[in-house]
Amino acid sequence: MNILLVDDQNVVREALAYALTSQPGVSEVVQAGSGQEALRAQEIHRCQVAVIELGLADRSGVELIRELKGISELRVIVLSMHRDEFRVAEAMRAGADGYLSKQSRLADLVEALRTVVRGRTAVSPDVSAAMVRALQRRDAAAKGDMVAALSDRERQVLRLLAMGRSAKEVAAQLSISVKTVETHRARLCAKVATHSVADLTRLAVRAGLVEA
Q1: Are 135 and 183 in contact (CB under 8 A)?
Q2: pLDDT by residue (tens digit) across 84-108?
Q3: CB-CB neighbours of 116 under 10 Å
């Protein structure tokens, strides 16, 4: 495979290029010290996979991922010192196929290159944790949007259930039948994909309907 290596730290890039060139199956390593150089190099060499540092001087690595994906079919691995959940999520949304921290071993990077070339995703363990946190935040935000979309009556039922009221108590307080309360509860559970009142309670707390 031929690799496009993008990093504006010359010593780091050149050392890594030298190390990758000696790996079995690597036919060429094309170096670029900026986003602009990377785009020109990809137009000429049409590399199969790019390894990109996010912190470039002339443009963000996330922007470069989108641009590279727009001009050719290639796989992209981010290799960066940054591994917080925001940057990981942003890079993956931009089209990155893998994300490794610079604390990874050379063997891990080589394996990741082979993995993404086969059409799969590769992330280092420390980055996996950041991805999980990002997904949890996204899911929490999505569920918060669900609460905003509920009817006034559904929010009332959700709030009372989260406060520990029984269906009978909710029915009495809202002057509706127990059957209607059960219907609202079933619809709420379906909307947030749960059968647990505990999950409904956590949802109500996140939405500010009740205090934790």
Answers
A1: no
A2: 777 787 888 888 999 998 889 999 9
A3: 23
Name the 3-class secondary structure at 45. helix
Round to whole Å and give the CA distance between 29 and 44: 13
pLDDT at 129 over 80: no
Distance separating alpha carbons of residues 93 and 101, to the nearest angstrom: 17
CA angle 80, 86, 89 (to 5 degrees): 80
Tokens of 134: 């990002």
Q: How far apart, in Å, are the Cα atoms of 28 and each of 31, 83, 111? A: 10, 28, 17
pLDDT number for residue 173: 92
Contact 197, 166 (CB under 8 A): no
* Residue 158: pLDDT band with limits 50, 70, 90: confident
Q: Where are the strands (E) in the chain, listed by range?
A: 2-6, 28-32, 49-52, 75-80, 98-101, 122-123
Tokens describing residue 110:
């080589």
Pull the structure tokens for residue 186. Answer: 């079933």
End-to-end CA distance of the chain: 54
CA–CA separation, 138 and 21 (whole Å): 39
pTM for the full model? 0.63
Tokens of 96: 């990155």
Q: Label residue 148 exposed, middle or buried (CB < 10 Å: 0-12, 13-18, 19+).
A: exposed
| Two structure tokens written together for 145 | 């949007």
